[in-house]
Amino acid sequence: REDVHYACAHPCHPSVFLERTTKEEWQDTFGGIAAPQEVVAAYEGGDAAKQELADSVIRVMYAPVVDVHWVTVKQLAVLEPTLVETIACMVGALLTEALHETVHTVGVPEKAARAMLLGHTQVALANT
User: What value, to the nearest 5°, has the Cα angle with vertex 27 and ends 22 and 28?
Assistant: First the structure.
């Protein structure tokens, strides 16, 4: 129908590089409570006023929001689930499994292994 306008959005969740300044921001790992996050959204209706309205609704739904990035529906489908669920979550699971094996099979103290892994992960992500 021409009188119905569709938009879809997905939260990016707070970035690993978000400068968190409060305990509440640190505890909000998914976003939508205290830690600001970005959102990716799609609107293909061609009506700029309707897209602006969608933007304001999205900012309320996922608040606090740093920015809303507009893409096509197809691009959003590539980002979620392909990029984040298939790739990023798999890498996260791999890191968790590697840490577990390092601690429980090799015998490295967990605090030492976790410090080494997380510090180097930050370096790897920051320099990509």
Answer: 100
Instruction: Give pLDDT tens digits for 45-98.
Output: 889 999 999 999 999 999 999 999 999 999 999 999 999 999 999 999 999 999
Tell me the three-class secondary structure of 79-97, residue by residue.
Answer: HHHHHHHHHHHHHHHHHHH
Query: Exposure string (b/e) for 6-39, b if CB count within 10 Å is 16 or more?
Result: ebebbbbbbeeebeeeeeebeebeebbeebbbbb
Tell whether the model's pLDDT for residue 2 goes beyond 90. Answer: no
Angle, CA 32 vertex, CA 42 and CA 114 arms, to 5° = 105
